[in-house]
Inverse folding.
């Protein structure tokens, strides 16, 4: 039978998708499984796309992106981070995911080691594996004050074959945000060792009790091997639009343009025009959205942590509650059971690599009333089970 | 200095882009360099996108594509090719280019050989090289009756390490269309040897004196290693939209879905809705567009073949005149000179691999009056040079 190459056949499928598929055809499921809210894109962004279509912005654009969009990204970076970037450092991509894939294609030879801090969104490791990279996981530890990274463990994991360290801060699924000290230590280590530091910054504006997460590119020179990947999906509620960008050393500009050409040419043209509108006008909408997320975080964490056998830390960023269920060792089976029996769609912790098993993830980027309803269902479900029955369920 | 891996640093840049950059800032250039016409997307397709935006089709879709779009592709394939496909065989992709990259990621291990019939659009080979594939070129030969493929040369080029043969028919840049006999022989050979046959079918509807080019998937069973890559860019004038699809054996469905997830998640959601409209209503527009291309083909080939030292065959498909200039050995330098001195943007033959040097490519998918003006400029330019001065120019 025809089959893909071994590297691809052996890649773990998306376990979140497997849970969602198990609920296929059910009409009354509250979907908190994917990394996406229920908030549609703002009208002024949709209007910009409609206007671009009317103006026939339907032809090819330069591989590095629409010049106006690259400039709008520069202006945004200056405004939010106080950082003046040369245009050469910016490549527009068809989503943060596409940005990660282009970076892996640019840097990872087969057999190169890629260190990933976990639990983490599985697609960072997935893109590295497609290119033949060997993924080495460094787990965060959960303490009383939340998730913490021991940078020494990252250093100890880096060997001769390590080509890159990947950080996703704010983290999907844990909500962990790197602190300035750890960021500086990582940057210093990578600089000395000639290792690339790849920062998945897509949640950098989704933070609580501050305006933005630490942005390691700010501390890097043009010559440093530091890359930031960003996306319009979360901050501007544009998941289905597929638009993002990379900030990289100027020396990578040519390689990233060639790789855009060989992957997709570039993102959809009129979507790039809409991206200019998002960056130029979107800041005004952010406080209201973040206030809603903040309220949902309070609801989710307060009510989940009151469930029997459940413990959960307060996320400093992103929009997920990543909660531990006592005695749980098959999060996929439990997530499937919760879909069927409670009508709530959750992501299994096993999807997020080392240290993720035993947990479930709920996306709380939804309307508070929807979230309240989901919490009510989970309370009823957890009231009916105890750790023993949970353990039996694991063998289903 | 930070730099990409060797494999990427050594990839030949896009020579067409280099010519276009050399004309940057010039206001009076007739651009015939890219594979794109000047015809904007039809209103009913743009309207479908606007409607989808109004309906908030701005969220994630399944990795294999919008179910309605997969079904519309099945119906289109049945209608045009008389071929009933299972839905599992269809994966929606963010452009034909993205389809090619996903296929290379699914199949090509580092060191695998990929046989490409040339002169060919360079991105097929480019995607294979990104994955560490070794590209082996089999040149077409130009006879009095046009470009011809000697399938025996393909067979002779395939060795133990050959994983795939790539065919682009109708061909960019030559306009060559594979005949049924050569297609059957290739399929038979690949079947016996367990080699993948990857067909870039994006120009399959842009043909002259017939309704469609031979479609090798029609001759293949579900178990055959035959893949077709298609695109909305050319047939529906949607270059900037980034939408295409793959037809593959059902055994690849899961791998291609995972790879969509790790590359881009999927094409822009409302663009997929517009794709349904294109397939369901676009057939009515095609005759007028093809009649225009036909007229432009006549203008381009008649007038180019009358130039001193120029010879050109009649393309059976696609929308390019690929013409030979006597004595030319540096097509890049000549293309740059023609931009500067004649104000016409052409692609250098060297961009298209083995057998391409000595040629220039003009895209004739433009309004006849624009094309007439470009031909007039080229006539004035070629009247002023002779083979000797052309050869001197090659060393510029």
């Amino acid at each position: 039978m025809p089959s893909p190459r071994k590297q691809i056949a052996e890649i773990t499928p998306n376990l979140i998708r497997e849970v969602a598929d198990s609920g296929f055809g059910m009409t009354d499921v509250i979907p908190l499984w994917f990394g996406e809210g229920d908030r549609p894109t703002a009208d002024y962004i949709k209007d910009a796309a409609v206007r671009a279509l009317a103006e026939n912005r339907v032809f090819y654009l330069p591989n590095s992106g629409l010049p106006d969009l690259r400039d709008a990204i520069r202006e945004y970076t200056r405004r939010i981070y106080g950082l003046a970037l040369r245009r050469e450092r910016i490549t527009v991509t068809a989503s943060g995911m596409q940005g990660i894939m282009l970076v892996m294609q640019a840097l990872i030879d087969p057999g190169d080691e890629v260190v990933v801090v976990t639990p983490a969104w599985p697609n960072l490791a997935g893109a590295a594996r497609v290119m033949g990279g060997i993924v080495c996981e460094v787990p965060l530890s959960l303490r009383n004050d939340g998730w913490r990274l021991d940078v020494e463990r990252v250093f100890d994991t880096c060997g001769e074959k390590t080509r890159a360290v990947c950080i996703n801060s704010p983290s999907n699924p844990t909500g962990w945000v790197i602190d300035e000290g750890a960021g500086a230590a990582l940057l210093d280590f990578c600089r000395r060792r000639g290792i690339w530091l790849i920062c998945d910054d897509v949640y950098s504006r989704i933070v609580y009790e501050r305006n933005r997460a630490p942005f390691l590119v700010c501390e890097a020179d043009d010559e440093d091997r530091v890359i930031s990947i960003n996306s319009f999906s979360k901050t501007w509620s544009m998941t289905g639009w597929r638009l993002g960008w990379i900030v990289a050393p100027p020396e990578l500009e040519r390689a990233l343009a060639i790789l855009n050409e060989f992957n997709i040419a570039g993102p959809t043209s009129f979507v790039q025009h809409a991206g200019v509108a998002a960056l130029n006008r979107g800041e005004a909408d952010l406080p209201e959205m973040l206030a809603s997320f903040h309220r949902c975080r309070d609801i989710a964490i307060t009510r989940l942590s009151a469930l029997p056998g459940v413990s959960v830390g307060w996320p400093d960023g992103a929009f997920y509650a990543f909660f531990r269920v006592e005695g749980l060792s098959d999060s996929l089976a439990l997530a499937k059971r919760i879909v069927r029996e409670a009508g709530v769609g959750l992501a299994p912790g096993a999807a997020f690599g080392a240290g993720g098993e035993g947990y479930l993830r709920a996306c709380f980027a939804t309307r508070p009333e929807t979230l309240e309803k989901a919490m009510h269902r989970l309370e009823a479900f957890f009231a009916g089970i105890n750790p023993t029955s949970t353990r039996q369920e694991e063998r289903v």
Observations:
- Chain B has two domains: 6-41+286-382, 57-282.
